[in-house]
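To the team - fe (iii) ion complex, inputs and output below.
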Amino acid sequence: MHTYLYTDATLATLHKADTYGLIENGVLAISGDTIVYAGPRHGLPRDLTIQGEQSLNGRLITPGLIDCHTHLIYGGSRANEFEMRLNGVSYEEISRSGAGITSTVAATRVASDSDLLKTALKRLDRLLADGVTTVEVKSGYGLDHDTEIRILRTARQLSKERPVNIITTFLGAHAVPIGLDADEYIDSICIPTLKAAAAENLVDMVDGFCENIAFTREQIERVFKTAQKLGLPVKIHAEQLSLMGGAELACQYAALSADHLEHINDAGMDAMKAAGTVAVLLPGAYFFLKETKCPPIDGFRLRKIPIALATDSNPGSSPMTSLLLAMNMGATLFNLTPLECLQGATLHAAKALGLKGIGQLVSGARADFAIWDVSHPAELTYRIGDAPLFRRIFGGVEC
Ligand code: NIG
Ligand code: FE
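Output:
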């Protein structure tokens, strides 16, 4: 097959732990949708049939960024609740008063399919402008059979509308709908909807919100048992506002990731290490809710638990559509290094989604990458509100 070369590039290959794997004066060679070489010019295999090449004049190439935790599809806005919080009402009080997630549920149920798609595409386009090539999208603002299914179908539609890889997550266990008992909701709506969505091939993984304003461990476990029977991997929103032991529970089901984790303890981290579960940190939610308890970064580092970063893009706790900003916040709010931030938005984010063959610039990986108008990867984490993207390449195609 013919090969195309990007030459005179600085490559951040991330091909081994604890280093950018920087290669100056590097070449990235692609054939179709696959990387066939990433390294110094002199090491380029001689047997390639070169079809064309482009000099990047020292520009940086990284793997395409991966946003591994978003709630991109919803109706309405929660600016009014933001205002309430700034007038002294807490996020939990708002949630208990019947607003919060359930107010977005009401707005989502009345939104048409085309409105859901249109508003999600706007948010998706903003993510793509940050060099993102894979996005995880959760349901969870429907909380009834029809709306959850509509959200997941819309999520699948996103990858037909734009050159991007979309991973769908069923988050029926996100909040208790108004007027329903939590157990009744889990057994008679959430679990049957999960089965129906899986039968329509709408679900890549299953998530649950384990929190005192959402579901108990026992309730989440019933959803996980169904996921297990369906052969679907699980992940969890855990220890965001309090310590509920959700991360430990998820690890018993070999969770791909546990997300938020501000309140996780040593036992939870030990369980994550043993299960190979990724810590997905969401500094946008921490920032927007004005939290003061940081996730225990040193505990993750000590145990070598991979840390990923994501936007958590959602209307209530993180109305953010920039993964580069999440990287900046990972550094400024959580003290992650720029290397940890880049790994968190590429290699470790891929692991949080159970995806192999993306997140690194190595031979055999999918040709999803970003070319930046900067020469060093720390520039990506350093900037606030800037996206120095030169080109986004998805499956070998310049977008
Ligand atoms: O990830 N934690 C639960 N879900 C979202 C917030 C949802 C909302 O407030 O609408 C989150 O932060
Ligand atoms: Fe979330």
